[in-house]
Design goal:
By secondary structure, the protein is α+β, with helices and mostly antiparallel strands. 17% of the residues lie in helices and 29% in strands. It contains five helices and eleven strands. β2 and β3 form a beta hairpin. α3 packs across α4.
């Protein structure tokens, strides 16, 4: 049968999602834990591969297995074989036409940025940080041009393997909550390092190093070398995946779990 699972993890404890020969990725730990319950090798497919240091409050993945187990075994049983920084939140049986990546209609990411003079201690590795004053209103105004379908070449990594740089951005928001600035992005899909590159450029605007209309100029230029450096992964969270309502996933098929931890 095919099983879909929802997962949360602290990415600073691992070397990204995708399996590697050294075995220290989120996928590697999960597949080993699932195999303990299934008593057979298990291969996971996720909704969106996250880089080293990037977290997830809601990642979705699926696997096929010949083992028949209670759904709770794929949650509590698997968690008993996982390190503390990874947790399976739920498991549901789906038919073979469900695909964690290709059935997804959109993804939601949040970047949590601590904006104060002193670097984080307690939240180290879980939030981004910048010590200069930020104008969140200027950043919100600059981000407005990102909504809609655009060529995001100026914000993709050089090693990005996507066939097309065009993505449909459903919404972008920038809000301050005390010392924390929260960037929310909702799009059909994202390019490699796209959000971290967007945040880096928006921070340039927030610090007054570039004008508000610079973001629109970068979009039009389609030139990565003109944008700001890639921002740190620490504050980036995959926090939701949207699926059509036909799939029996928690949340009615639309999974949104923004990380409330560390937010005032």
């Amino acid at each position: 049968m095919r099983v879909a699972i929802g997962i949360e993890y602290a990415g600073n404890a691992f070397e990204g999602w995708q399996t590697q020969p050294h075995g220290r990725t989120v996928q590697d730990f999960l597949e080993r834990a699932l195999a303990q319950i299934a008593q057979e090798p298990v291969k996971l497919v996720c909704a969106g591969r996250t880089d080293t240091g990037v977290h997830a409050s809601m990642q979705v993945a699926h696997f096929d297995t010949a083992a028949h187990r209670p759904l709770e075994a794929w949650v509590r049983g698997v968690n008993s074989h996982l390190p503390a920084s990874i947790g399976v939140l739920w498991a549901v049986e789906v038919d073979e036409s469900f695909h964690a990546r290709f059935s997804a209609e959109a993804r939601r990411y949040r970047y949590v940025l601590l904006n104060r003079r002193i670097r984080p201690g307690l939240a180290g590795g879980r939030v981004g940080w910048t010590h200069g004053d930020l104008d969140e209103e200027a950043m919100a105004a600059a981000a407005a041009c990102l909504a809609g379908e655009h060529d995001f070449t100026s914000f993709r990594a050089a090693e990005c393997q996507a066939k097309s740089p065009v993505r449909l951005m459903h919404s972008v928001s920038v809000q301050r909550r005390g010392e924390v600035v929260v960037f929310d992005f909702h799009a059909n899909a994202f390019l490699h390092h796209m959000i971290r590159n967007l945040v880096g450029s928006l921070v340039f605007v927030g610090k007054g190093r570039r004008p508000v209309d610079w973001m629109a100029e970068l979009l039009a230029a389609r030139n990565r070398s003109l944008a700001a450096p890639t921002f740190a992964p620490d504050g980036l969270y995959l926090c939701g995946v949207d699926y059509p309502p036909q799939w029996p996933l928690p949340g009615g098929g639309r999974i949104i779990a923004p990380p409330q931890l560390l937010l005032p």
